[in-house]
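During the second half of the funding period, the structural biology subgroup turned its attention to how the target accommodates small molecules. The most pressing case was magnesium ion, which had performed well in the primary screen but for which no bound structure existed. We therefore specified the complex as follows and requested a full 3D prediction, including the ligand pose.
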Amino acid sequence: MSQPLVIFDLDGTLLHTAPDLLDSLNHTISSMELAPVTFDDITYLVGSGARVMIDKALQLRNNPVSAEEFEALFALFLTHYSASMPGRSEPYPGVLDAMARLEDAGYALAVCTNKTEIMAHRLLELTGLMPRFKAVTGGDTFAVRKPDAGHIHGTIDMAGAHPSLAVMIGDSVNDVQAAANAGIPSIGIPFGYSDTAMENLGPDEIIGHYNELTPELVGRLLERV
Ligand SMILES: O=C(O)COP(=O)(O)O
Ligand SMILES: [Mg+2]
């Protein structure tokens, strides 16, 4: 029997990355002389990967660009973001203890993020967290990404786990929806980057702090499946 698996989203769930994402995004759009976006825009901008984030920022500033210009902006973002890592990004309060509790209880851990795979790996390497995860998949690892069930199922496969013994933890509609599409339970955290209140997204559980993320809670969710 495979190990039960707890899958974390990355931006806004495992790590508070918004200040660094914002810096790199503003560096990127300033190349087009566009006014910076603000921290309040983050809940709208983050959650579907850097391409969507840049696209939404351009829409906010009413500044459509050609496909070629867009690729140049995306490259500029990746270069700046990669060079700035780990920047000010840090784990949310209590998440490292929660990970340790789950590991001690026999759970394996994985990350399923819409960040590009190379950025997710680099950030987790630089924060020292990479060795903790059986699999880390990004928005470009497979042909599909969250909210598509295939992203979750691909992550579970890579971790050597089984969908009947996996739980997803995330901060946005993409996470809750991907879990529902994949037929696995979800835990929503309300302190990340979502422009819809977590209780309206319908996860199986909501935790207000990582001290509520216990092996007992995950075990209960898995029994319910
Ligand atoms: O960076 C993003 O837009 C999405 O990242 P997440 O899936 O880890 O929340
Ligand atoms: Mg997120």
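Two results from this model are relevant to the next phase. The longest strand covers residues 108-112. The mean pLDDT is 97.
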